[in-house]
Specification:
By secondary structure, the chain is of the alpha+beta class. Helices cover 53% and strands 13% of the residues. Helix 6 packs across helix 7 and helix 6 packs across helix 10.
Length: 225
């Protein structure tokens, strides 16, 4: 059943802030973030991605990779490690770092790509090309962070995770890097929404996430943003 039918009237209202908040919820320390600080982490992360993308406006992501000397490989190998499926990853142990894209995992998203991105994807081949570009752009942002040694989470305020008397342990919010990478990708490719919506649509279609649970999470995020 098409995703739009499962979550009617929901997709058009999903702002970057709401989808950014959905990403923030995935942070292992999310429960430590004061609720009043949630908008700060979402907005600042989105802004970091948008600003980075502005420097590349009008550039194609594949040309950007070539000009940066970044290699990328589309492999038929399974992207499954320890029961977690990856669609793409960047290997910083290589010089220069190499982006690996897992074709079998990307192909599984072609249907939701067409449903969510509509006219941007008109055929199976175009869907796959667009999915490759989306994941290249996402990893390119992480490469920018690595190159500059300036990671989005480290540029934002750390949160208090433990306190004992006068001693306080603080940690950064690592999921901010993902929010920024989504914003970079959306801005660079001119997508209608943050690309993490594709992940949720895929999970709903595969019945790994109930549409009702997704909608409840969206409702909760709207209260925080």
């Amino acid at each position: 059943m098409p995703v739009q039918a499962l979550i009617p009237d929901m997709l058009p209202g999903l702002s970057d802030e709401i989808l950014g908040c959905m990403e923030l919820r995935q942070d292992p320390l999310f429960h430590k973030i004061p609720k009043e600080k949630i908008p700060y982490y979402v907005h600042e992360s989105l802004q970091a991605g948008r600003l980075a993308a502005a420097a590349y406006k009008g550039h194609g992501i594949r040309a950007m990779c070539r000009e940066a000397g970044l290699r990328y490989e589309i492999t038929e190998a399974s992207g499954k490690f320890h029961n977690v499926s990856f669609r793409a990853q960047i290997d910083f142990s290589k010089t220069p770092p190499e982006i690996i894209l897992y074709a079998s995992s990307l192909k599984g998203m072609q249907t939701v790509c067409q449903e969510i991105l509509g006219e941007r994807s008109s055929s199976g081949e175009a869907d796959l090309d667009l999915l490759v570009d989306i994941h290249l752009a996402h990893e390119f942002y992480h490469w920018l962070e690595y190159r500059e040694q300036s990671f989005t989470n480290e540029r934002l305020e750390a949160i208090e995770v433990f306190k004992l008397g006068p001693w306080t342990k603080r940690s950064s919010v690592v999921q901010c890097c993902e929010i920024a990478a989504h914003a970079f990708c959306k801005e660079l490719l001119g997508l209608p929404c943050l690309p993490n919506l594709l992940d949720y649509a895929y999970l709903i279609e595969e019945k790994q996430l109930q549409a009702e649970d997704f909608m409840q999470q969206i409702t909760t995020c709207k209260l925080w943003i």
